[in-house]
Amino acid sequence: MSFHFQKLPKFKNLRGKTKHNGWYKVYSPSVKTDIAIHHSLTKTGNSAAFANYHVGTLGWPEVAYHFVILKDGTIEWNHDLGVLSYHVGDSNKFSVGICLVGDFRTEEPTDEQKLSLYLLHEALKKDLPNYKCTRGHNEFPGYAWKQCPVFNYKAVIAKKPVAQASKPAPKPKEDDDMLEKAIVINAFPDFAIAEVLAARIKAPIYTRSALPAGKVAKELYVVGGTKDGLQADKIVALTGKDRFEVAENVAKFLK
Length: 255
Hints:
By secondary structure, this protein is of the alpha/beta class. It is built from five helices and ten strands; from the N terminus they run ββαβββαβαβαβββα. It has two domains: 4-158, Peptidoglycan recognition protein-like (Lysozyme-like), CATH 3.40.80; 178-254, Rossmann fold (3-Layer(aba) Sandwich), CATH 3.40.50.12090.
C-alpha cells in the first residue's frame, strides 16, 4: 500500500532499522483518529539517537515516534501507521506521533521543519481513514503538566509556511523502501510464539488483518494460518494443526 506521505520530499524510511528490543503491537491504521505533536527537548538528535534512549534506558521495545522531523526538514519514518508506540500514555492506541527535533522552550522550529510538518500533516489527514484531530502532547489526557510541544503547531499546520526551497532527496527504489523480513501471525494468541522468532531474526510482527496490501517485506515468516494471498520473494510457513504444533515447528526452525 502506498501512502501520500511517502511521496514527500526529504522522506526517509527507517522502519525496522533503529535499535529495538522486541516490537510494538500493530493494528489497522483505521484505529488511528489523532495526530500527536511533540518536540524532542534536545538541541540535536534523530530517530537512531531517540531509539537508543527509549530502548536502552527506558526499556521500551522501539523508538516512540512514528515520524521524526530533523532540523533540515528530513522526515524519518519509523513505524507503520497502525503501530501502538509509546508516546501519549493511555492515548497511544489511537494516536500517530510526530516529533520535531529541538528544545522549543528556548528556540523555534526551523523553517524547513515547519514546512515538513505542514506537508506531513496534510498527507496524514488523507492517509488516516478515521482522522479526527491533531493535538499537542500536553493536550492529551494526563499530560497538561508537560511542556511539549511548546511552539505554536496550530499556526504551522493551518497554513503552508514559506521556507527556502532545497533540493529534494532522491526517491529510494521500491526495494529500498521495504523491510528485509517480517512475521505474519493469524491472530494475537500466536504473538507469544512469534515473539521468540522475532527476537532471533530481528523482524516486526504483523497480524494478518493489519498487514498492508501488497508486498511489505522481501521475506515473510508465517506463524499460524496459511500463506495464501501473501506476497514476498521468500515465504516460510511455520504452521500446524494447532498452536502446540506451530510452537514445535518454530522451535525446530530456530535450532
